[in-house]
Structures are given as structure tokens and as C-alpha cells.
Amino acid sequence: MASGSPVPFKSREDHRKQAELEEARRAGLAPAEVDEDGNEINPHIPHYMSSAPWYLNAEGPSLKHQRKWKSDPDFTKSWYDRGAKTFHADKYREGACENCGAMTHDKKSCVERPRKLSAKWTGKNISPDEKIETIELDYDGKRDRWNGYDAASYGQVIQMYEARDEARNKHVKEQQLKKLEEKNVNQNNEDGINDDEDNDDSLGVDEAKADESKQMHFAKVEKRMRTTGGGSTGTVRNLRIREDTAKYLLNLDVSSAHYDPKTRSMREDPLPDLDPNEKFYTGDNFNRVSGQALEFEQLTIHAREASEKTGHDVHMQAAPSQAELLYKNFSVEKQKMKSQTKDEIMEKYGNAATDHELLPENFYLAKVRERLSTIELVEF
């Protein structure tokens, strides 16, 4: 119940009667309390909310202290009248802008181009006075980022882009028609056809073809897929064809290969005892050590070793093309050295796979003895 302030002294009997009256009002047995404006006060409102503070000096029961009781200034959500003019003088006035002649600003604040002969001396082309407004914005108006924006001004942007697209389509159509005309002229010269009506018909057909070729890309729709890391991408990793069996259904044994649902990966082979020719999935580890994955790993190792051991300024992530070219040259030189070493060994010791006659075993023993005879034994 709302009570006035200062609170008059009440005896115990008065407090008991007041409590009984409030209980009867909550039960609907007594009429509700009325404020100074004639509005009924809900009896179920707690006492700490209905009682007014002492500094308001409330004379009777009221809920005005729960409302917005402070007097607000004339706040508004409107914006300045952009480009509005008030008065247009015919001659220069004392105290006006020396450059343009407007009374609402001085020469230092003038935004017009400085005139060769200012309005103060010529008295001509006097600019009109601007409309000066003082606006007190409210809470929403101060935080409205689109306050004062004219939506009609965006029509100029739309017209600019439409004109650009129209000019581009016109240019593309002219180029396509030019190519088709050249093609028809060459074909007519080869066939010996010089009929004007046929040329007109072919030109009409060519225009239809040009229109079709111009619109053929409008039906192209690229699928965008949402990813877990935010944003969107055109491809999603670790997806399978819907008709194929999922990895975790290949072997339902609890002790079989572990399946990670977060990354959709199964590193081990779920069916290790099955014939390799009969299974289509052998685990993610098999894919990591085969095909282009192995080549990429070798390329990465070579780039790291080249940077650490030989001092080459190469980085796999910063300059992948340079690292790939360096690895390609290294592979060619390595293969060339292997073949050269192989040729030297075959030339020196022969090749058992060919028909060349091998040297006898005594020949090699004689060479070894000759080599040992030249070595001087040093006694320590």
C-alpha cells in the first residue's frame, strides 16, 4: 500500500487494523486503494515498491514515484533538414560572409570555392542563408547509425550499376555477333552462297544464339556449405557418397577400429582380415602414406632439411612454388647421379645380366695382391 511521507505515528492497534485491511483488499473483500488521480492501486504490489521515498513529500497514496517523474527536455529522433535554405538576399549585408554573402557563417567557415571577386565587393550571386537548427536527440536518436539517411539517394547507386551491366552486356553481344558474322561470311565464301535473304535469316539466328550464350551462365548455381569454424566454403572435407556404407558400420565389433565422430576419421583398418581386393576402405592411415599425400610429405621434409642443413631460404608455406621447383631439381639431379654411379660400377665390374664376358676370379685376386704390395706397413 502506498503511504504518505512523513509517516505518522501508528499504535499497535492501528498496525493491526492496517494489516487486516490490506489482507481484505488482497482477498477482494474490500475496495482497492485509490491514488490522487483516481486510479486504483493493485493491492498485490509489495510494500517496498508502493511506499514513496521520504524526499518526495508525498501527501497521499500514489505510484508516481515508480513512473518517469523527471521533466525531460524536448528530445526528438528527427535529423537536420539537409540542404534547407531560409532567406535569399539580393545584395550584400553587413556582417555576412565576405566570400558568398550568406549571413549564417563567416568567411573562415565558408565551404564554397573562394571567388576571385568576393560577394562583398561585387554584390552579386549572393548565396541563401542556411537553416540553423539545434536538435536535442534522445537515447535512441543518439545511437541510431542511420539517423538522417535518405534512402532515395541509394537509387543513384542502383542506376550506376544497372548502366554498367547494360553497357557490358551490350559490348559482349556485339563481340559475339561480330564473331558469328565473320564465321558466316567465311562459310558463305567457301560454299559460294551470296543470297541476301539467307544472310538476313542467318543473322537473326546468330542474334538468338548470342542471347542464349549470354544467358547460359545465369542458371549456374554454386552450392555453398556451412562449416563448423564459421563462414562458408564450396567443399566440405571427409564427406562420402550417400549410397556408400559409413565407416562406423563396416565392423560393429566394439574392439574394432576406433571412429572419431568429431573429425569423422577412422585411422585403422576396420576389416584387416578381409581380402584387399574386396574392400573399398582401408583406414585413413593408408591414405596418408600413399598417393599424393606421400609426395607432399616428402616435399615438406625436403624443404625443411634444405632450410636447416644447407641454409637455403625456402619455406613450404610461404613459397610453395619455390619449394616444389627446388625439390623437382633435386630429384632430377639425384636420379642423374644414381644412373651415373650405376654406369660406372657396370663399366668397372661388368654386368651379369648382359652377354659381356666377365673377367676371371684370378684377375681380381691379382689386383688385390698388387694393391696390398704397395701399402707400407708401419710398426707402431
From TrEMBL:
Q: Where is this region: Disordered?
A: 1-45, 181-209
Q: Which residues form the Pre-mRNA-splicing factor SLU7 domain?
A: 137-357
Where does the UniProt annotation locate this protein? Nucleus
Q: What is its main location?
A: nucleus
Per UniProt, the ranges with Acidic residues bias are 192-204
Q: Locations of Basic and acidic residues compositional bias?
A: 10-26
Sorted UniProt keywords: mRNA processing, mRNA splicing, Nucleus, Spliceosome
> What InterPro entries does this protein's entry cite?
Slu7_dom, Splicing_factor_SLU7
Q: What does the sequence similarity comment in the record state about its family? A: Belongs to the SLU7 family.
Quaternary structure? Associated with the spliceosome.
Q: Please explain the role this protein plays, according to its UniProt record.
A: Involved in pre-mRNA splicing.
Q: What's the protein here called?
A: Pre-mRNA-splicing factor SLU7
Organism listed in the record: Rehmannia glutinosa
